[in-house]
Amino acid sequence: MSSHSHVEGQLPHEPERATLEGRNKITGFWLFLGGETVLFGTLFAAYLTLRGQVMDGPTPNELFDFLLVAIATALLLTSSLTSVFALQAMHKHDTKGLLAWLLVTVVLGAAFLGLEIYEFNHYVHLGHKFSTSAFSTSFYTLVGFHGAHVAFGLLWAVLIMLQLKNRGLNTTTAPKVYLFGMYWHFIDVVWVFIFTVVYLMGKVG
Amino acid sequence: MAHAHTVKRHTGIMDWLTTVDHKKIGILYMLAGGIFFLIGGLEAILIRLQLMYPQSEVVSAQTYNELITMHGTTMIFLAAMPMLFGFMNAIIPLQIGARDVAYPFVNALGFWTFFFGGLLLNISFFVGSVPDAGWTMYAPLSGTTHTEHFGTDYYVIGLQISGIGTLIGGINFLVTIINMRAPGMTFMRMPMFTWASFITSALILFAFPALTVGLAALMFDRLFSGNFFDPSAGGNVVLWEHIFWIFGHPEVYILILPAFGIISEVVSTFSRKRLFGYSSMVFATILIGFLGFMVWAHHMFTTGLGPIANALFSVATMLIAVPTGIKIFNWLFTLWGGSIKFTVANLFAIGFIPTFVMGGVTGVMLSVAPADYQYHDSYFVVAHFHYVIVGGLIMGIFAGLHYWWPKMFGRILSEKLGLWTFWTFYIGFHLTFFVQHFLGLLGMPRRIWQYLDGMGLNELNFISTIGALLMGVGTILLVINIIITNSKPKTASNDPWEDGRTLEWTIPSPAPEYNFAQTPLVRAYDAWWEEKMEGNTKMTPVEPIGPIHMPSPSILPFFMGLGLFIAGFGFMYARELGVVSLVIGIAGLAITFICMGLRSWIDDHGFHIEEEEILKDQGVKA
């Protein structure tokens, strides 16, 4: 059960599941993501209720720019793919490859976040402020919650990378990488819904 | 491992601040929850004193609003839930044969966030702007237009912080039960309390995030001039009701299911019979948990959702009576033909059954949407939910306290004083709330500060207040009992009731730090009873005695809670004090996040309790 019993010997193929602590973390994180689903579900519900209430502010159709959102989406979806490559490298015990792919993931995520900040700033200049209307408040809350999740994920990934660099891949660091992977996919899935419900429906609906 | 022994084992107050031991955290939950219970009880007594006579002015109208708001909020979030978490912490690992919960650190974090959230909420009394919009915080009353002072802010921020604690506690228990069961402890051999806590934790997981969003939205409305619930900017006040009750109704089952579990354990132990219909009990619990999410709009029958929505939610609500009825009959059939011992714990359990049935019957009455238009917001509703929450949950908690006290503290509570607690509390309870059904039917609205003389409400209100005072006496007797018992030596044996059925009664009282010197092999439901029936004096171990790995204590959870507490204050007062306050808020968040980073950065290898120490423990006890 000890967290370092495998360090001296051969690291198993799935080092994230080698210890009870690791398995506990994975089970718990799945459950946590279940709770997160309810969190975002409620935010989506609030947004869908209020998105028609634009008051004097700009409408979704006037606001959203497909090109910007398409680039952001491409960045985030690709970063999800690169996080899979990171995990594959981990399963081959290739710490260098793992670090490299994590770095690519972080860079793509940071680019996404940068675009989002630019986007929000742009909207504010168009008169779409947080307190303009019920639509604007619920828009910034939903998309902002997602953005905050991305930002937290980036800090987390950097912290994991530093630990990998210092201590290498072992049965303590491996579950952390795995959980980050789960988290990152979840954020990606939420974005797919935001893309559909907020941007596509805002443009078409 | 050479470095495994360097971990310092604290004593005294530092031990309590840094502990990650589930049994100690359970005691902390009990203590904090118990104190909040006394505060909430005091508020209740003030409410009843105000209503004792018509048109009295014991407290002002404003104070009265504050009292009803804080009474509800405190009792639900800061008293009932923590006391249940106390039991879950203290008992679940022992019942499933585990040495600890899945995440000892997160467990401590859960306690400290709950504690600091509750503290923040109650500090509002000293600052003088107390939440006063009712525990349901309906918009737009709770918005800045109608509540300018900081009362609502204390509510939204305090509950958000304590809500984090509840959510991570729920996840912790789910993983503990899924992954940490002893060999042979299959799901269908788990004790009923563990099962009920399992379902409750699942409800917490899916209900609390909705509350978090609701509170965050209200907070954004108040702190950053958002418009979620402001109709003048397109907001929607009914949205708050939906979000609140989609959390709030499951919350009711989060509270009652563990109480059902406690009652099942107590009734079965003191009837000296296997729980009747165990598998139907499990099924009923799951079904209640599932249906609990389908009925939230029955709190909103008069909101105007239309006949179809009302009809659907009405039928769904009535359905819940079916699994609940199954449970009631199972308890009765467990008692039937048993050799019943009327201990205090069992008295509370047996008293619970008819009381809860009465609360259930009024619940079915309320579920009839057209009739609900008559009952809505009257004292009938107040009577109903106190019958299920006090008559159900609090009776369950009191039963559990008397039942598990020896396992938690090594001393049996005085049965003699316990009898007095039971009778004063039980009679007081029915005096207080039975008459309130009729007050409601006579037309007395809830949350009302005064009523006029000559409306036929005087006598019943007077009786109700006398009952409340009697309940207060019962509670004080319990506190006295606890203090007296605490000064006696720890003499409780492993199985002090002699009829223990489950694994917690196979180990010393109180349990040693590592719980089980040797992990037991579970061969049946009611594992310990089964062994006793076969003439065995101990469980079959699955491992030899050897060093036991333990998690190291940590002060970080305390500081993470403290950081959120400071952050709450900072952000709350930013709209009055400006930048300074904002900086304090950010500093508080920084404390929390830095502690979080440290937790990730510092590898915690824990330490080992050596064989000699375990053998010494056993030698002393033998």
Furnish the topology, listing elements before pairings:
The complex is a heterodimer of chains A (205) and B (622).
Chain A: H1 20-50, H2 60-63, H3 66-91, H4 95-125, H5 134-167, H6 173-204
Helix pairs in contact in A: 1-5, 1-6, 3-4, 3-6, 4-5, 5-6
Chain B: H1 12-18, H2 22-50, H3 61-95, H4 104-127, H5 151-179, H6 192-223, H7 237-271, H8 278-291, H9 307-335, H10 344-367, H11 369-375, H12 379-409, H13 415-441, H14 458-486, H15 527-533, E1 548-550, H16 556-572, H17 574-577, H18 579-601, E2 607-609, H19 611-621
Antiparallel strand pairs in B: 1-2
Helix pairs in contact in B: 2-3, 2-4, 2-14, 3-4, 3-5, 3-7, 3-12, 4-5, 4-16, 5-6, 5-16, 6-7, 6-8, 7-9, 7-10, 7-12, 8-9, 9-10, 10-12, 10-13, 12-13, 13-14, 16-18
3D structure, described in words:
- The complex is a heterodimer of chains A (205) and B (622).
- Chain A is an all-alpha fold and 205 residues long.
- Chain A has a domain of 140 residues: Up-down Bundle (Four Helix Bundle (Hemerythrin (Met), subunit A)), CATH 1.20.120.80.
- Chain A is built from six helices and no strands.
- In chain A, helix 3 packs antiparallel against helix 4.
- Chain A is elongated and about 65 Å long.
- With 622 residues, chain B is mainly α.
- Chain B has one domain: Cytochrome C Oxidase, Chain A (Up-down Bundle), CATH 1.20.210.
- In chain B, 67% of the residues lie in helices and 1% in strands.
- Chain B contains 19 helices and two strands.
- In chain B, helix 4 packs antiparallel against helix 5, helix 6 packs parallel to helix 8 and helix 10 packs antiparallel against helix 12.
- The longest helix of chain B has 35 residues.
- The two termini of chain B are 31 Å apart.
- The N terminus of chain B is likely disordered.
- Classes of the chains: A mainly alpha (205), B mainly alpha (622).
- Chains A and B meet through helix 1 and helix 5 of A and helix 5, helix 6, helix 7 and helix 18 of B.
